Amino acid sequence: MIGTLAIAVFEIAVLAVGYMTARIVLPTLTFNKIKVDALSPGEAGFNWFGFKRLSDGALLCDATLAGWIGVLIWALVLMVVVALVTLRSAEIWQDHVRQLLQQAETARHAWA
After folding, report:
1. DSSP classification of residue 33
2. Cross-strand bridge partners of residue 34
3. Are 19 and 27 in contact (CB under 8 A)?
4. Which of 10, 11, 31, 36 is nearest to 21 (CA)?
5. Mean of per-residue pLDDT scores for the chain
6. Which SS3 state, helix, strand or coil, does residue 53 take?
7. What's the start-to-end Cα distance of the chain, in Å?
8. Among 67, 56, 63, 73, which residue's Cα sits nearest to residue 36?
9. C-alpha span between 93 and 98 (Å, rounded)
10. What residues contact 23, with CB distance under 8 A and at least 6 apart?
């Protein structure tokens, strides 16, 4: 019971963050060609993809779909951050190995 409730609260929180992200990012990236529907359940007539054409020619994205788009945006951001950290970590290890090899070479010449 508590686990199910915790999962539901987590899903609501994730989708809320995703919704707010999509509400900001989608119109900005598309120059207001795609707008995000309000959270109220008043709108209807969305197609299977979760979009609907407005009278001004713009597309209106369903709030639930917008939440998932926002989650996808954050997942992509997380992947980029992990990739950058991994690359930086690899550079640090390469520098460390290079220093160790130089020290070994210096020590070998000192013994020779």
Report:
1. S
2. 59
3. no
4. 36
5. 90
6. strand
7. 73
8. 63
9. 8
10. 36, 66, 70
Distance (Å) of CA 13 to CA 8, 17, 54: 9, 6, 29
pLDDT in tens, 39-73: 877 778 899 999 999 999 999 999 989 999 999 99
Q: Which residue has the tokens 């407005």?
A: 54
Measure the CA–CA gap between 106 and 112, rounded to whole angstroms: 10
Q: What pLDDT does 47 receive?
A: 93
DSSP 30: T
Can you tell me the mean pLDDT for 18-29? Answer: 96
In eight-state DSSP terms, residue 39 is S
Alpha helical stretches, state H, the chain: 2-29, 63-111
- Which two structure tokens, joined as six digits, stand for 67? 């939440």
